[in-house]
Automatic annotation (TrEMBL):
Pfam families: ERM_C (PF00769), ERM_helical (PF20492), FERM_C (PF09380), FERM_M (PF00373), FERM_N (PF09379). A 1,2-diacyl-sn-glycero-3-phospho-(1D-myo-inositol) binds at residues 49-52, 267. Residues 420-439, 535-564 are annotated as: Disordered. It is a peripheral membrane protein. GO terms for cellular component: plasma membrane. This is NF2, moesin-ezrin-radixin like (MERLIN) tumor suppressor. Residues 1-284 form the FERM domain. It is found in: Cell membrane. InterPro entries: Band_41_domain, ERM, ERM_C_dom, ERM_FERM_C, ERM_helical, Ez/rad/moesin-like, FERM/acyl-CoA-bd_prot_sf, FERM_2. Its main location: membrane. Keywords: Cell membrane, Coiled coil, Membrane.
Length: 564
């Protein structure tokens, strides 16, 4: 819930706490100490005071008055401090917006990784059949600075985001959002409120207030502080009119004084200092009873969700196995049908071939009989001619010629008859083979028919359950009482997760470096911002957010020059 609209009514004498509590109750939020209601007056940010009436604040006169429900203070370690899921979600939304709006500097390779967790939180597990090319086209996932810095198309960015998104399979929304915050909290500008200040000499500086302490920056470098004051090393913070004073715990270190442009800004700085210091000290004490109860409830809820996810995962696995079995049976059935169709077609072809061969054999046999008959007739004619007395020599010559022709015709008829007889025998043999092929085709069709009638594996193990949520066996084997054994097992799982996280962190850094190297060739150097250059310099020196603050907090000699 980002916007809260308030219509002024003189009869309603609500205090800031009344309106704030109403919003928190509406959201179901119990970790209220991180949040506040923010408004803007004369280009200056202000926060609604809990003990002051809403109408007594210097709020804009136009109606309705708009308040932004935002995180006012940030945790040092999001995973350890943020207990409620709604708290994590609100921080995720706010930090994500700050990164996209470039209020928090994020290097390109980390931007891609954070985008992949944002996609996991919104879309759930990656499914190539659902999340096809272009499904992120309308999503705002990367800062415009990062997009403009490289010669890369939206499709190229989507491909790299999706590659990491696919690796987050199995993470629930709250887990993906927490991974996002764990990476974001290591960014240099995360959780820092910046204010323009001047020291005694009038030198312009920036004051940064965050969960770890107070930091002094050069106006052109919001990433690396020149000097830092951890909360546990500050003795006193005060302001008089526009002058602000920081007194270190070590009296040997000079007092640091600076001026801001507006009294209202000094009040805001003091509010943030007091709130952050209180939370800093609170973290180092035993948890209050309320927080202990919240953490216990959160552990139980996490365990319940974990078991629920495991149950759903088992159901999903059983469903997928049943679907695979069904698909395999359907595929086998289709294969058997195709084999049966092919066998039927082969049988029909064999029958047709047999019929054709039988018909051709019959015709050939009849032709052979006819030729044999003609040969007999020619033989008879020859005998008749021989028996005829030829009186004259001419008649004798003509007769001899006719006899010769008759003999040649008879010989030819005999040869043709013999060839036809052989062809008839061959056709009879082909007919016999065709009938044998027909017999084999019928036998194969019978075998296929007997195969397709077999009973599949036991339906109790492969069939898809008709009512998945019931799963009596599974539900009976789980316990939701959260006894001590459950908590011990959960603790062991958490320790195991920590070890796995360290290994994943190493792998993650390798992936980030790999992506950075991969896209480095596509970078447009002339479009690099001052923060890009500063970040690269810090990275090349091996400087990180926390070790930089540790180093500069020890630099007491630099404090003297800044204070002057």
């Amino acid at each position: 819930m980002d916007l809260v609209e308030w219509k002024q009514n003189p009869q309603v004498k609500w205090k800031g706490k009344d309106l704030f509590d109403l919003v928190c109750r509406t959201l179901g939020l119990r970790e209220t100490w991180f949040f506040g209601l923010q408004y803007t007056i004369k280009d200056t940010v202000a926060w609604l005071k809990m003990d002051k009436k809403v109408l007594d604040h210097d709020v804009p006169t136009e109606e309705p008055v708009t308040f932004h429900f935002l995180a006012k203070f940030y945790p040092e370690n999001a995973e350890e401090e943020l207990v409620q899921e709604i708290t994590q979600h609100l921080f995720f939304l706010q930090v994500k917006k700050q990164i996209l709006d470039e209020k928090i500097y994020c290097p390109p390779e980390a931007s891609v990784l954070l985008a992949s967790y944002a996609v996991q939180a919104k879309y759930g597990d990656y499914d190539p059949n659902v999340h096809k090319r272009g499904f992120l086209a309308q999503e705002e996932l990367l800062p415009k600075r990062v997009i403009n810095l490289y010669q890369m198309t939206p499709e190229m960015w989507e491909e790299r985001i999706t590659a990491w998104y696919a690796e987050h399979r199995g993470r629930a929304r709250d887990e993906a959002e927490m991974e996002y915050l764990k990476i974001a909290q290591d960014l240099e500008m995360y959780g820092v409120n910046y204010f323009a200040i001047r020291n005694k000499k009038g030198t312009e500086l920036l004051l940064g207030v965050d969960a770890l302490g107070l930091h002094i920056y050069d106006p052109d470098n919001r990433l690396t502080p020149k000097i830092s004051f951890p909360w546990n090393e500050i003795r006193n913070i005060s302001y008089s009119d526009k002058e602000f004073t920081i007194k270190p715990l070590d009296k040997k270190i000079d007092v640091f004084k600076f001026n801001s442009s507006k009294l209202r800004v000094n009040k805001l700085i003091l509010q943030l200092c007091i709130g952050n210091h209180d939370l800093f000290m609170r973290r180092r004490k035993a948890d209050s009873l309320e927080v202990q109860q919240m953490k216990a409830q959160a552990r139980e809820e996490k365990a319940r969700k974990q078991m629920e996810r495991q149950r759903l995962a088992r159901e999903k696995q059983m469903r997928e196995e049943a679907e695979r079995t069904r698909d395999e049976l359907e595929r086998r059935l289709m294969q058997l049908k195709e084999e049966a169709t092919m066998a039927n077609e082969a049988l029909m072809r064999s029958e047709e071939t047999a019929d054709l061969l039988a018909e051709k054999a019959q015709i050939t046999e009849e032709e052979a009989k006819l030729l044999a008959q003609k040969a007999a007739e020619a033989e008879q004619e020859m005998q008749r001619i021989k028996a005829t007395a030829i009186r004259t020599e001419e008649e004798k010559r003509l007769m001899e010629q006719k006899v010769l022709e008759a003999e040649m015709l008879a010989l030819k008829m005999a040869e043709e008859s013999e060839r036809r007889a052989k062809e008839a025998d061959q056709l009879k043999q082909d007919l016999q083979e065709a009938r044998e092929s027909e017999r084999r085709a019928k036998q194969k069709l019978l075998e296929i028919t007997s195969k397709s009638s077999y009973t599949p594996m036991n339906s109790s193990t492969t069939a898809l359950p008709t009512d998945l949520p019931s799963f009596n066996l599974i539900s009976e084997s789980l316990s939701f009482d959260f006894k001590d054994t459950d908590m011990k097992r959960l603790s062991m799982e958490i320790e195991k997760e920590k070890v796995e996280y360290m290994e994943k962190s190493k792998h993650l850094q390798e992936q980030l470096n790999e992506l950075k190297t991969e896209i480095e060739a596509l970078k447009l150097k002339e479009r690099e911002t001052a923060l890009d250059i500063l970040h690269n310099e810090n990275a090349s020196r091996g400087n990180s957010k926390h070790n930089t603050i540790k180093k500069v907090s020890e630099g007491s000699s630099l404090l003297s020059s800044l204070a002057a």
